[in-house]
Amino acid sequence: GCPVNVRIPEFVAKVAEGKFEEAYEIITSTNSLPAISGRVCPQENQCEGKCVRGIKGESVSIGRLERFCADYHMKHSDAKAVKPQSNGKKVAVVGAGPSGLTCAGDLAKKGYEVTVFEAFHTAGGVLVYGIPEFRLPKAIVKKEVENLQDLGVEVKTNMVIGRVLSVDELFEMGYKAIFIGTGVWRPNTLHIKGESLGNVHYAINYLQNPDVYHLGSRVIVIGAGNAAMDVARTAIRHGTRHLECFSLSKTISASEYEASYAKLEGVNFIFNKKPVEITDKGVVFIDLNEAEDGTLTELPGTEKLYPADSVIVSISQGPCTTITDSTKDLKTTPRGLFETDEVGRTSIPGIFASGDAVKGARTVVEAVAYSKNVAEAMHEYMQTLPPDLPDAYANVPVAEYDEGN
Ligand code: SF4
To answer: Looking at ligand 1, which residue's alpha carbon is closest to its atom 1?
Structure first.
């Protein structure tokens, strides 16, 4: 059930023996971000969903154990990663989210000189700007980024590739291959009247900096996925007193774990409602009938206004087009995602893509798993490139300044 093939029975056995560092070694042999995955993986659908103890009772808390081992290691070990010997080949990674960080780490360990270009002012992508502090402390992400920097990875923030520098310019600067892991940051919209009102916001924007929003005391969240739970719980922490989460279907699509915390914190769920218009007083919803097979049908005449001070739309995101707009011949799918083969090769040789920018919004550890394969394919690709021509000026004498002049 684990997308990155953590050797679960082995590491759990080491934990049981009290050999936490050995457990950590086992985990990190396949999973480069255990402190993060231990916190944000939807374990009930992944590792813990396959645990045989879960059939008759409760599964082993694999995620919690993983998180413990990673935290134990961070607290007790001051061993720093050692920068491997350089092979002289430069690689550009666009986007410092889970995909980009995974690829950067894997290639740096193989001796590549990796530069990560990040559009925001802090590295971490969705780990920093999409997952709230109470689920994933930013200090943990910072530590993971520092580990990569110890390996020699250079991180350049506030660099929007496609605007500040183009992909072609990266090649001209000597990067042999480019990895694109830019994620999905453009909110999907409802396409209903009133969506552009000032009291309507989008989950991915709100989560980036919730401190600057004044949502008021009653908030409606449209959507019931994991991001909606993050939004709802964040809003409550920022002073919202009444929070209603509306779902089209009769179920909550967020993981049971996230939904249970949202309920504990006071989120009220309302099912089988479809928004038809937003006003400055709230949202008009129409009732839906849900058939056995999940088909939803509107029930005419059931429209009602549900009052709210603010509305947050949380119905997933699509990719931004900054790179594709500025790069000729880079093919995308009709949804705007990068078109790649199974190992991340795009339509342009030397450019690879991975993570949500290819697959659409998925879990963090799925992005990690896929990006590991892509990093391997990039390594193979770079083996096939002809050696660089020697630098014509590599051995010129170094001039001395006349300090007294
Ligand atoms: Fe479970 Fe995620 Fe750890 Fe895999 S990486 S064992 S899915 S918590």
So the answer is: 47
- How far is residue 42's CA from residue 256's CA, in Å, rounded to a whole number? 9
Round to whole Å and give the CA distance between 72 and 21: 8
186-187 vs 317-318, strand pairing mode: antiparallel
Residue type, 388: D
Q: Is the dihedral of CA 159, 161, 165, 170 positive or negative?
A: positive
Q: Is 41 in the pocket of ligand 1 (CB under 6 A)?
A: yes
Strands 273-279 and 154-156: unpaired
Distance 2 CA to ligand 1 centre (A): 5
Q: In sequence order, what are the residues at sequence separation of 6 or more whose Cβ sits closer than 8 angstroms to the Cβ of residue 92?
A: 114, 115, 117, 161, 170, 175, 177, 178, 179
**Residue 153 φ/ψ, nearest 5 degrees:** -70, 130
In the chain, DSSP finds a helix count (H) and a strand count (E) of 15, 16
Q: Summarize pLDDT for 220-265 with one digit per residue, the tens.
A: 999 999 999 999 999 999 999 999 999 999 999 998 889 999 999 9
pLDDT for 49-72, tens place per residue? 999 999 999 999 999 999 999 999
pTM value is 0.90
Q: What are phi and psi of 179, to 5 degrees?
A: -110, 130
Å from CA of 224 to ligand 1 middle: 23
